[in-house]
Amino acid sequence: MRFSIISTLALLLACLGCGDGQSAPEIGNDAEPRLIAGGGTGDGAIDGRLNVYVLDEHSERPIRGAFVMLGSGPDPSFSATTDNDGLVTFRDPVLAGSQIVTVYEEGYTLSTLFGLDAANLTVMLEKIEGQPVELDTATVQGEVSGFENLPVAPAGSARLALVSYSIPDIFEEDFEFVEQEGDPPENMVIDAPGMDGSYSLETWVGEQSIWALAGIFTPGQNGEFDFEPSHMGLVRGIQPSEDQVLEDVDISLDIPVDQDCEIATTGVPERMELIQNLVLLELGQDEQLLVSALSPEPGPMKLPALEGALAGGCFHLVLRAYHEVCEGEDCEEAAPYSMLIRRGLGLADLSPATVDDFLAPPAQMSVDGRTLTFSYGLPQEAEITGGEIEDADGKKLWSFMLFDNASSFQLPVLPAEAGHAGLAGELLWRQQAIAVQGEVDPNDFEFERFNELVTHMAADELAFTP
């Protein structure tokens, strides 16, 4: 066998190169792809590999062909489109540490995560036009009795009962309230001569409770009124099916609403003149009664004792401070706003309750080209920050989360192959600050748990033109 001098030298040089003490970079965290239901992050820091699943938020089905890129563009080092499973995998030893991840599919809200450092990411994309709300509903009918338990109504007032349904979980974003028919609505029962106490309630489909809150109703001027509750009634275990008319669900007003409570607020952030008050009575998992429906402002109020049919229950308190803009008699809510949630309360926690820990919204918002800057409210209590950009029609064009608590960030520029037309026209930037119960690592988190953990949320807005 013969060897040429050139081939022998090449072999020697190759061997010498192998012994220079250097080795090729390795994949430090070669995490296998994992789809996180409802969206989320996990499976360790990015060290050579990042797996991204992209799903439709409404159907939870994979989105094929969605564009995913890392960095601020427009010439990203890593970019690809999702496969039939909605998956993109970037695998390279140089890929390590926190990343800017942007996901886009035509017809969906653009999504960017700043400072992501998780080897697995599942992104739920929301359609810009939104999904048509198709509620499966049923009708529950019956009679309300027990008005004799209520105080006698003075002149100009009446004894009234409002029939409603339990709520699976008001903190779930996808719950839709069912509108009632009639004027006055058919779920309102007035104790008056010639009235038989009957009601008709449009409700959602599934196991629930039907209940009524009753008291003295006094009309005022300009649509205002005063309502002093004194009793309620409850029927549990009702399970109507789609389009069913469920009859003879009679409600007796036999539960006193006589426990004195008072909710006071202090330390409300500036530019928030109004406060909305929600008190929910939780009877069990996914069964809540909005007992403050006719007492929407903080102050003295009556609640039922947690005994008898309500034994084992608890209260949730939701307070929302907000700004209001009026033109003549027409008023609408506007930013800034601040909301807080206190869960699992007893009557002692509300007798009275002074709330003074509203979260201040982001401030000093400014836009310079594609750079968005803001400052955190003081004290800086937010653990998660994020925001969104809407067009003049209120369509959400871009949503983003800041995993690194940055107060300034630059919107990425997508390359031409992504097919994104860019931002144009009059836009609205809404920046949010969020605090949650306990410690949360945004790089190891199931997004579905957000609603059960959030304790504070505040936001402000800024109009701009790019």
Give your account of this protein's structure.
The chain starts with a helix and ends with a strand. The chain has 466 residues and is mainly beta. Among the domains are: 25-132 and 360-422, Carboxypeptidase-like, regulatory domain (Immunoglobulin-like, Sandwich), CATH 2.60.40.1120; 135-257. The protein has a twelve-stranded mixed beta sheet with strand order 4-3-6-7-28-27-30-32-23-22-19-20. The protein has a five-stranded mixed beta sheet with strand order 5-2-8-1-31, with no helix packed on it. 4% of the residues lie in helices and 47% in strands. A hairpin with a 4-residue loop joins strand 27 (384-391) and strand 28. It is built from two helices and 32 strands.
Which residues sit in consecutive blocks of at least 5 with pLDDT less than 50? 1-19
Overall 3D geometry? elongated
- Sheet with most strands: 12 strands, mixed
Structural class category? mainly beta
Number of strands: 32
| CATH architecture label of the domain at 25-132 and 360-422 | Sandwich
> Quick check: average pLDDT?
88
The CATH superfamily of the domain at 25-132 and 360-422 is known as Carboxypeptidase-like, regulatory domain
CA radius of gyration is 29 Å
Tell me the distance between the termini.
Answer: 73 Å
Short description:
The protein has 466 residues and is mainly beta.
